What does this fold into?
Amino acid sequence: MKMRSFFSITLLLLAFLVAAAGAKKSKPPVKPVGLIPDYYKVTGTCKQAEKLVKQVVQEKVRNDSTLGAKLLRVHYHDCFVKGCDASILLNTVGTNQSEKDARPNLSLGGFEVIDEIKTRIEKVCTQRVSCADILALAARDAVSFPFKKPLWDVLTGRKDGRVSLISNVNGNLPSPFSDFATLQTIFSNKGLDINDLVALSGAHTIGVSHCGAFSRRLYNFTGKGDADPSLDPAYAEFLKKQCPNPASPATVVGMDPNSTLSFDTHYFTAVKKHQGLFQSDAALLTNATSADIVRRFQSRDSFFKQFAKSMLKMGAIDVLLGDAGEIRKDCRFVN
It folds into this structure.
């Protein structure tokens, strides 16, 4: 009797364990909602994705110290138009011109680096890593390279957009001619506040500009052949030597005087001295709050902390998640 009872209990226990195991197997996988850290590791879709991005970027930036500025600008131009969906990477197909063909984007560079990263990742993780995530990671890694540590966090899990139209650029992308009210409106429309506006303007601490983006400040500011009176006279004379009127379209000038390749706080010191290259830089001093933030961001700790926060916010603008969008096989074309 005891033996029969023992076998009955044993069979019941085995049946419970089998049922439990079956229930565990049938449980659907957890799908992350929103952008998260290490998306490709967490989901197991491509555990080496971020490592591969970093490898390619480091290889390239060793031979091209301007790459950080280039990729940061591409990422910025992408996020402000239709959100961070890699629409800036799409080529024109047929008669519908893409964002790349808009005037502010004609001088962008670094696309071939994104292509190489995508090619390398596709060899090991076919159609699992989005171009939007690659761009966000590559921009961070290129700027961070001299510091040997990441300057800001990049959350991942974006999908790629399927639409890129030249008509979407106008009104969404801040221009070097913008006044403060225009800048504030554009940033506010993207969910960014005045701290983000000033911090992200600090990206001008690296990179160069063509003369056409600021020559009006030197030669015809009010249409009377005059210079912008808010521009430091000595700096204006320096710029005139670099960009005679009319300037060669090929001529470029560092956006941050004497500190074109270094990601630092020198930009804010220059702006305070009225040596901001663009009208949009000078505009930061026309608002009392932003002018105070410019002063505060001359501190490395203050600027770097806020820049990291602002990049995190910018990188989340109107992202496509889950079933929205796609993961492109080639970053230049929709699937």
